[in-house]
Amino acid sequence: MTLIRDFLVILACLLAGKGIAALLPFAFPGSIIGLFILFVLLSTQWVKLDWVHDGGQLILRHMALLFIPVAAGLLAYVEVLSEGLGLIITSALSGLVLILLVVGRLYQRMQP
């Protein structure tokens, strides 16, 4: 019964995020808004961690299975991916370096 409650709370946040995303005048992922809503609800303790912990753990435990359909779908675009592989790798590495530099600089500024 607790898993049903956990999933219903997570699903309610997801659906609320998708509803807000549908109202926005620009494209934004509803799942991200839903995660932000869940974060705010947990931070303000309107939703207790016990209400979503077990369901979240179950989802995380089986997360690898959720990526199988995505990986199978990518196989249809192997030609497109192989043409832009250099650009994809360059973008990923430059993004990683940029994130590391910004986080490192922020950490240095926050230290007394």
From TrEMBL:
According to the UniProt entry, its GO molecular function terms are:
hydrolase activity
Q: Name one GO cellular component term.
A: plasma membrane
Mention any Pfam family matching this sequence.
LrgA
Which InterPro entries does its entry note?
A: LrgA/CidA
Q: Superkingdom of this entry's organism?
A: Bacteria
Q: Where in the cell is it found?
A: Cell membrane
Which parts pass through the membrane? 31-47, 59-78, 84-107
Q: Does the keyword Membrane apply?
A: yes
Q: Which UniProt keywords apply?
A: Cell membrane, Hydrolase, Membrane, Transmembrane, Transmembrane helix
Return the protein name.
Answer: Murein hydrolase regulator LrgA
Q: How does it sit in the membrane?
A: Multi-pass membrane protein
Q: State the PANTHER family in the record.
A: HOLIN-LIKE PROTEIN CIDA-RELATED, UPF0299 MEMBRANE PROTEIN YOHJ
